[in-house]
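Backbone-to-sequence.
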């Protein structure tokens, strides 16, 4: 049984092909440029050439792609966009127009001259990934499921803070279903407010297997729990330090005991340590984080988590984990999680765990693999079809 997992961040998209016949450490993996970075480069090339561009496709991750659009406009070159692609820049299409982007219907976009460079927006490109695997003799025509993680702010109504809207969503999911896989959905169950997750579903049309989509940070934190040193803890503090967002969970036997989310660019090591200590002892407030231009914080279990005991205080994963690199006496003692020997694939392993929770037909096999009991003794060359 094979499951394709894709964790899409700002810098990279991390790909793991699970095969139940193999130990997880022998699974095939790719670390590729993120879709938003690829779009960024294409728009920069159009700017260098002085070509007008059309943004088509669906809503995708912003950041680098949005910055490239802004630079293209500032250089004096035209940007056209279909409404769904334009929502990558801002959910408020009037604001997109104010930036100087010309919004067109699909029919109007097709009528543009060939001199306008068309750039497709999408986070998940299954045909491209299938082609890469096929080139190495690994077909993806026998998958049991596909799982994709992206970060989704959600579509806040006019006048509602994006930060508050996102955090209200996190709070609601934890209260409804207190586990990290609460942030994963089967394709047919994605909430309408989660527009980027829904765009992934739209991009995957034609993939004729069950699709699971999930938020990136909970996926990475869930994946980190499969590191043996982390799994040995009954209660644990885990921080995913991403390129744009830092999200930390306090986990215990009952599930999520507390959570905060902040913008990575607004925290240094002392501030991040202070937030983590407050999350551990239960004193962290939503007002403190939101008032500092973060998303917010909530503590669900009053019993504090004692730091300073055991071999580490906080588990860390994510591309900017060095923000919490060991500092010697006085600071928090971090442990950089390496589930199945690979930090970069923490999100993919979290996706696998979420697939097991959402798809009963694969649950037993996947869970056996994640616990180290799947595929033992089968070398990779014998598993290649």
């Amino acid at each position: 049984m094979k499951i394709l997992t894709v964790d899409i961040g700002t810098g990279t998209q991390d790909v793991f092909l699970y095969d139940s016949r193999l130990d997880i450490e022998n699974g095939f993996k790719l670390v590729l440029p993120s879709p938003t970075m690829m779009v960024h480069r294409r728009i920069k090339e159009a700017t260098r050439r002085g070509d007008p561009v059309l943004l088509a496709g669906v809503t995708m991750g912003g950041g680098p792609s949005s910055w490239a659009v802004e630079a293209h406009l500032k250089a004096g070159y035209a940007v056209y966009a279909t409404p769904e692609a334009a929502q990558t820049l801002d959910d408020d299409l009037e604001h997109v127009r104010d930036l100087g982007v010309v919004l067109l219907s699909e029919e109007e976009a097709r009528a543009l001259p060939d001199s306008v460079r068309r750039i497709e927006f999408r986070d998940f490109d299954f045909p491209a990934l299938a082609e890469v695997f096929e080139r190495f003799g690994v077909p993806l025509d026998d998958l049991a499921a596909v799982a994709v993680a992206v970060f989704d702010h959600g579509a806040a109504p006019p006048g509602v803070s994006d930060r508050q809207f996102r955090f209200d969503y996190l709070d609601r999911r934890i209260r409804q279903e207190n586990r990290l896989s609460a942030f994963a959905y089967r394709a047919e169950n994605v909430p309408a407010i989660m527009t980027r997750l829904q765009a992934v579903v739209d991009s995957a049309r034609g993939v004729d297997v069950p699709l699971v989509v999930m938020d990136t940070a909970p996926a990475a934190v869930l994946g980190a729990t499969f590191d043996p040193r982390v799994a040995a803890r009954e209660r644990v503090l885990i921080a995913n330090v991403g390129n744009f967002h830092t999200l930390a969970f306090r986990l215990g036997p009952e599930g999520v005991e507390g959570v905060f989310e902040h913008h990575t660019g607004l925290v240094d090591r002392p501030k991040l340590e202070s937030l983590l200590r407050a999350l551990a002892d239960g004193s962290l407030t939503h007002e403190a984080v939101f008032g500092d231009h973060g998303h917010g914080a909530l503590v669900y279990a009053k019993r504090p988590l004692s730091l300073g005991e055991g071999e580490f205080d906080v588990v860390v994963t994510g591309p900017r984990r060095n923000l919490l690199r060991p500092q010697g006496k006085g600071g928090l003692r971090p442990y950089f999680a390496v589930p199945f020997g690979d930090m970069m694939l923490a999100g993919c392993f979290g996706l696998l765990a979420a697939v097991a929770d959402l798809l009963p037909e694969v649950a037993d096999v996947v869970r056996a693999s994640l616990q180290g009991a799947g595929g033992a003794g089968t070398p990779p060359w014998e598993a290649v079809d």
